[in-house]
Amino acid sequence: MPRNFKEEVVFTAIMAGLMVFVMTAYNxxxxxxxxxxxxxxxxSGFPLGLVVAIILDLLVVGPIAKGLAFKYIINDYMRKKTxxxxxxxxxxxxxxxxxxMSLFGIAVEGKLTGAHILATYGHTWIFNLIVxxxxxxxxxxxxxxxxxxxxxxxxxxxxxxxxxxxED
Length: 168
Fold this sequence. Notes:
The protein is built from six helices and no strands. By secondary structure, it is mostly helical.
């Protein structure tokens, strides 16, 4: 878990960056198939998706997911196992982000009109959840937590005086 704003920013950048890139690639490929313009379409959709995802993560979904987790789900046993806290928050984050970003994707594609909007949203939501949840739990989450852990270890080592300094 991030301990300060700097760690939160780095953790969110890694998490959102990887998730948005893979999910953008997945959704663009699902929409247009493998074509000559696929790479360009993925790269052109990525920046706006990343900005929206970071804003949602930091200002909306993140606070709600953490609030729900600590108020209703995380118990005393789970507090002793930090990995369970991370997994719980990750699952809630994926549910919230898939809910919001599926709507964003439909809006960007201009599919917010028509008689089948609920069917389109439901289809998009479930297909995004099927990819995003394992992506988060198996690949992106461990990568982001690993980088955060290394960052926290480096900070801890800097904060602790070395034995050589103590002898002086």
